[in-house]
């Protein structure tokens, strides 16, 4: 990294039991170490989910869904050109998200189709009475997931050759899709079905 500015270095140090998070401006590091943690939020060899959310004036840092720290933004986010990951880590997924996409959103799969065990992961927040995610084959809907907040129902169908063979409807006492909460919807193309 040949730069005089680094917006957010982020380093998990197992030896010290700490997470180091700082910024490099004009050749000097600022606010290097967050408080020492009683237990490390991630363990060597275990899967983890680190999220860095950019909020008004700060980064919110979460490990496995739990907040670890807030860190003040010192360098404009518009100046960030790239992300670098190095060290003793096996990356299985890396994603930059948070943009609000136009709807309807139509995206083709890489290679023209889903492969076995491919995942479709959608993060969002409902803004009205419901939403739908449809998988389409040559303009024919073959799978549909529909969350309807008006009746607090989730409907999903899977079909083949244009004919639905599975229709599952479930009413929820606790409806997971409300307009105040971000959701994660994960669809997996498994050997036994979607």
TrEMBL record:
One of its GO terms (molecular function) is carbohydrate binding. Residues 1-97, 106-194 form the Galectin domain. It comes from the Eukaryota. InterPro entries: ConA-like_dom_sf, Galectin-like, Galectin_CRD. Keywords: Lectin. This is Galectin. It comes from Panagrellus redivivus (Microworm).
């Amino acid at each position: 990294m040949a730069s005089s500015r680094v917006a957010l270095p982020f380093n998990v140090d197992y030896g010290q039991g700490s997470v180091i998070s700082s910024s490099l401006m004009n050749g000097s590091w600022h606010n290097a170490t967050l408080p020492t943690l009683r237990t490390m939020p991630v363990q060597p060899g275990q899967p983890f989910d680190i999220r860095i959310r950019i909020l008004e004036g700060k980064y919110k840092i979460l490990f496995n869904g739990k907040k670890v720290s807030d860190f003040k933004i010192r360098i404009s986010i518009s100046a960030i050109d790239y992300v670098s990951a190095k060290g003793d880590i096996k990356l299985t997924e890396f994603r930059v998200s948070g943009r609000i996409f136009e709807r309807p959103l139509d995206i083709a799969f890489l290679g023209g189709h889903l492969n076995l065990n491919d995942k479709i992961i959608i993060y969002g927040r409902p803004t009205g009475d419901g939403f739908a995610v449809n998988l389409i084959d040559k303009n024919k809907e073959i799978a549909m997931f529909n969350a309807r907040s008006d009746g607090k129902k989730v409907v999903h169908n899977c079909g083949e050759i244009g004919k639905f063979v599975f229709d599952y409807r479930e009413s929820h006492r606790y409806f997971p899709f409300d307009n105040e909460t971000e959701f994660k919807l994960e669809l997996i193309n498994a050997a036994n079905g979607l």
